[in-house]
Design goal:
Length: about 210
């Protein structure tokens, strides 16, 4: 991790954040700073987007619908992998500036699937795993979702049909697949950030059906 951070140009990253709103007519932009963080604010139509860069190298991406004050997009991650961060910021930009995401269709399936969600701590994915479980139950799909940390060797060593990786830890996928000899799938950042159960389950079905 340390090597990645040393190679990461924080000033270059912040300069890029200051240009995300360009070529987006009608977007208001400002930066707010305090002792702990810098917050890049984007306001367009009814959406209020924030990218928060903390001094401890943690980044938060937040989009709120101003019509009902509902948070509709959230990601957090550490500044570790340059290519991964570019993809995560591009996902924020696509959602913030209303580029339509494809909605997939869920199919019938009577095969039982044990599916494990992974992120850095397991806390974010634990909530999402329960949402996916509820969605599967409501759609009469015999899928079983659970969640854990990428560091939980005991859980990862158990039998699972598929491991879903949170986008903020996707750079661990190759090494984990080699270690645990399981099928891995990286969740789409926009679907993950919006807890889009329909699209995640549909992508899971592409693996099996």
């Amino acid at each position: 991790m340390g090597c990645c951070r040393r190679n990461f140009n924080t000033d270059e990253f912040k300069a890029w954040l200051s240009t995300l709103h360009e070529e987006q007519p009608g977007t208001e932009f400002c930066i707010k700073e305090d002792d702990q963080k810098e917050t890049y604010n984007y306001l367009k139509d009814n959406l209020f987007g924030q990218i928060v860069v903390w001094n401890n190298s943690v980044v938060e991406e937040i989009i709120t619908d101003r019509t009902n004050n509902e948070q509709i997009f959230y990601l957090h991650y550490e500044m570790e992998d340059r290519n991964q961060i570019k993809e995560l910021i591009k996902s924020f930009k696509r959602r913030m500036f209303c580029v339509c995401q494809k909605e997939y269709e869920v199919s019938e399936d009577d095969g039982e699937r044990n599916i494990l969600l992974c992120c850095s701590s397991g806390l974010t994915t634990a909530m999402f795993a329960q949402m996916l479980q509820d969605f599967s139950n409501n759609n009469h799909l015999p899928y079983h979702f659970s969640a854990t940390s990428i560091y939980d060797d005991d859980t990862l060593s158990k039998e699972y049909d598929l491991v879903l990786m949170a986008p903020q830890v996707q750079h661990y996928t190759k090494s984990m697949a080699a270690k645990y000899h399981k099928r891995f799938l990286i969740m789409n950042p926009v679907d993950f950030a919006q807890y889009n159960c329909n699209n995640i389950v549909s992508r899971v079905q592409e693996v099996f059906l």
